[in-house]
Write a structure and sequence with these properties.
The complex is a heterotrimer of chains A (about 120), B (about 260) and C (about 110). Chain A has about 120 residues and is mainly alpha-helical. Chain A has a single domain, classed as 3 helical TM bundles of succinate and fumarate reductases (Up-down Bundle), CATH 1.20.1300. Helices cover about 85% and strands about 0% of the residues of chain A. Chain A contains four helices and no strands. In chain A, helix 1 crosses helix 3 and helix 3 packs antiparallel against helix 4. Chain B folds into two domains: about 100 residues, Ubiquitin-like (UB roll); about 140 residues, Alpha-helical ferredoxin (Fumarate Reductase Iron-sulfur Protein, Chain B, domain 2), CATH 1.10.1060.10. In chain B, the strands form two sheets. Chain B has a five-stranded mixed β-sheet with strand order 2-1-5-3-4. In chain B, a hairpin with a 2-residue loop joins strand 3 and strand 4. The model of chain B has no long low-confidence stretch (mean pLDDT about 90). With about 110 residues, chain C is mainly α. Chain C contains five helices and no strands. The longest helix of chain C has 27 residues. The chains are: A mainly alpha (about 120), B alpha+beta (about 260), C mainly alpha (about 110). Chains in contact: A-B, A-C, B-C. The interface between A and C is medium-sized, with 28 and 30 residues.
C-alpha cells in the first residue's frame, strides 16, 4: 500500500461505510420490532444495552461522524477547487469527528458508569 | 569521505524466487542524487543492477522509482536529504506493477490505458485558412497538464490502480482532460464518453496520491473532477465545441 | 456515472436527514425506550421523514457497497450480477422498512 494521508482517509471511509451497512441491518432488526409490541421491542433493546454494546455505540458514533465529515470533504473537492487544501480538510474532518463523538459519547459513558 | 547506506530491492528472475533487499555503502556528498548512488553501485559493486534512466535531469520520465515509500524521479532526489530523515534509504521499483528485474517494472497497462484515451490532438481537417484564436485563459488552463512527462509515478501510486488494472489511471485521465479542454480538438464528446464508464473518471476515489507523487507538481485529481463535471453535461459541451469550430471556419474570430 | 451521481445525491440528502436524526434522537442525552419511539412513530410527519431517510440510506449503502466490491479486479467481472443483487436487496429492504414504518400503530 502506498503510504499517504489520502490512503488513510480512503481506508477509514470504506471501513466505516461497511461497518455502518452491518449496523444498519442490526438497527432495523431492533427498531423494526416496534410493530410487534412493547414486549418484543424492549427485549431486543435490552439485548443491546450491555456495557459492550454501549461502548460499541460510542464507536458507532465515531464511525458515523467520520464517514459523514470525510464524505463532505469529498463533496467539497468535487464542487470547488480545493485540492491544495486536502491536508487541512482531512485534519478538520478528523477534529470534527472527535468533537462530535465526545459530545455524543460522554452522556453514554456517564450512563454506563452510573448504571 | 561520507558514506550512506542504501538498500536496494534486487530481483534477478534467472536466479531469484523472491525479491530481496541488498545493502550497499555508497559515497555521499551534498550533490549526490539517488541515481548517482545507483550508478555507483552498478559500476563499483554489482554490474548486474538493472534500472531505467536516461536524461538524468527530470524530463525523460525514465527513472521513476519508490524511495522510502514515495514515488520519485531518482535523478532529482537528493541522497543527503533522504539520509537526513533518519532511516536507511530504501529504493524499490514502482509499486503495483509487475517487476521484470531489479528496479524495472512492466508498464504495459500504463501504456495501454494511455492509448485508450487517444492522447493525440484531433484537429479540424481540412483546416480553414485562418488563424485559430484562443484566449490566454484557455491556454493557461492547459499548461499544467501539458507538462506531464509520462513517468508513471502517479499511476503507480494510485490505490485504485493497485486494486484493478481496468482503471484508466490518473496519467491517461490527465491527458484526456488536456485534449477535452483544448478548443482545437474535435472529439470532446467521444473523449468524455470514453472516460465516463465504470473504469474512468468516476472510479477515482479522490485519494490524492497522484498529486503527492507527481515530480512535476501536476494535479490529476483536479483534472479528473473537471472531467466528471463535463461528462455530466457532455452533449452541451460538445455542441459548444462544434459551434466554436464552425465559427473558426467562418470568420476566424476568438470566442 | 449513474452510480456515482446516485451516491452523491444520497450523500447530500443524508447529511440533512442525519442532522435531523441526531438532533432529535441522539444528542439530547435521554435514554431510548419504547415510549419515546411510539410517540414519534405514530405521527404521519415522522413516518414520512423516516421513510425518506430509509430510502436515501439504502440508496447510499447499496451504491457504496457496489463501489467497494467492484473495485477489486477479481470481483469486477461479476459487475452485472452485483448490480442486480444490490438493486434487489435495496428494493426489498425498502419495501420491508417502509411497510414496517407505515404499519406501526401505538398500542391502546
Amino acid at each position: 500500500m502506498y503510504r499517504s494521508s489520502g490512503f488513510i482517509s480512503f481506508f477509514l471511509r470504506r471501513l466505516t461505510g461497511l461497518a455502518l451497512v452491518l449496523y444498519l441491518g442490526a438497527h432495523l432488526w431492533v427498531i423494526g420490532s416496534a410493530t410487534q409490541g412493547p414486549a418484543v421491542f424492549d427485549a431486543r433493546l435490552a439485548a443491546v444495552q450491555s456495557p459492550f454494546f454501549k461502548l460499541a455505540e460510542i464507536a458507532l458514533l465515531a464511525a458515523v461522524w467520520y464517514h459523514a465529515f470525510d464524505g463532505v470533504r469529498l463533496l467539497l473537492v468535487n464542487w470547488f477547487r480545493v485540492t491544495s487544501y486536502r491536508a487541512s480538510l482531512l485534519y478538520t474532518a478528523l477534529v470534527m469527528t472527535v468533537l462530535l463523538t465526545v459530545m455524543g459519547g460522554l452522556p453514554i459513558l456517564l450512563f454506563l458508569l452510573e448504571g | 569521505m561520507d558514506t550512506a547506506i542504501v538498500r536496494v530491492q534486487r530481483f534477478q528472475p534467472e536466479t531469484d524466487r523472491r525479491p530481496r533487499l541488498e545493502r550497499y555503502s555508497v559515497p555521499l556528498t551534498a550533490d549526490t542524487t539517488v541515481l548517482d548512488a545507483l550508478h555507483w553501485i552498478k559500476t563499483e559493486v554489482d554490474g548486474s543492477l538493472t534500472f531505467r534512466r536516461s536524461c538524468r535531469h527530470a524530463i525523460c520520465g525514465s527513472c521513476a522509482m519508490n524511495v522510502n515509500g514515495r514515488n520519485v524521479l531518482v535523478c532529482k532526489t537528493s541522497l543527503a536529504r533522504e539520509v537526513g530523515k533518519g532511516r536507511p534509504v530504501t529504493v524499490r521499483p514502482l509499486p503495483y506493477l509487475p517487476v521484470i528485474k531489479d528496479l524495472v517494472v512492466d508498464r504495459s497497462t500504463f501504456w495501454e490505458q494511455y492509448l485508450r484515451v487517444k492522447p493525440w490532438l484531433v484537429p479540424l481537417v481540412p483546416a480553414p485558412d485562418k488563424e485559430f484564436r484562443m484566449l490566454p485563459e484557455e491556454v493557461a488552463a492547459l499548461q499544467n497538464a501539458e507538462t506531464c512527462i509520462l513517468c508513471g509515478a502517479c499511476y503507480s501510486a494510485c490505490q485504485v490502480v493497485g486494486l484493478t488494472k481496468e482503471y484508466i489511471g490518473p496519467h491517461a485521465l490527465l491527458k484526456a482532460f488536456l485534449r477535452v479542454l483544448d478548443p482545437r480538438d474535435t472529439l470532446p464528446g467521444e473523449r468524455l464518453a470514453e472516460v465516463s464508464g465504470h473504469d474512468g473518471a468516476f472510479r477515482c476515489h479522490t485519494i490524492f496520491n497522484c498529486i503527492e507523487a507527481c515530480p512535476k507538481g501536476l494535479n490529476p485529481t483536479q483534472a479528473i473532477e473537471t472531467l466528471r463535471l463535463l461528462a455530466q453535461k457532455r452533449e452541451r459541451f460538445e455542441a459548444e465545441r462544434v459551434g466554436r469550430q464552425s465559427q473558426w471556419a467562418e470568420d476566424g474570430s476568438a470566442p | 456515472m449513474r452510480w456515482f451521481q446516485l451516491q452523491r445525491l444520497s450523500a447530500v440528502a443524508l447529511v440533512i436527514f442525519l442532522t435531523v436524526h441526531m438532533v432529535v434522537l441522539h444528542y439530547p442525552p435521554f435514554h431510548i425506550d419504547f415510549s419515546r419511539v411510539i410517540e414519534r412513530m405514530a405521527q404521519p410527519l415522522w413516518k414520512a421523514i423516516d421513510i425518506a431517510f430509509l430510502f436515501f440510506v439504502l440508496l447510499h449503502a447499496v451504491t457504496g457497497t457496489y463501489a467497494v466490491l467492484t473495485d477489486w479486479q477479481g470481483v469486477a467481472r461479476y459487475r452485472r450480477i452485483l448490480a442486480g443483487s444490490a438493486i434487489g436487496l435495496g428494493v426489498a429492504g425498502f419495501i420491508y422498512g417502509a411497510a414496517t414504518i407505515l404499519a406501526f400503530q401505538p398500542p391502546m
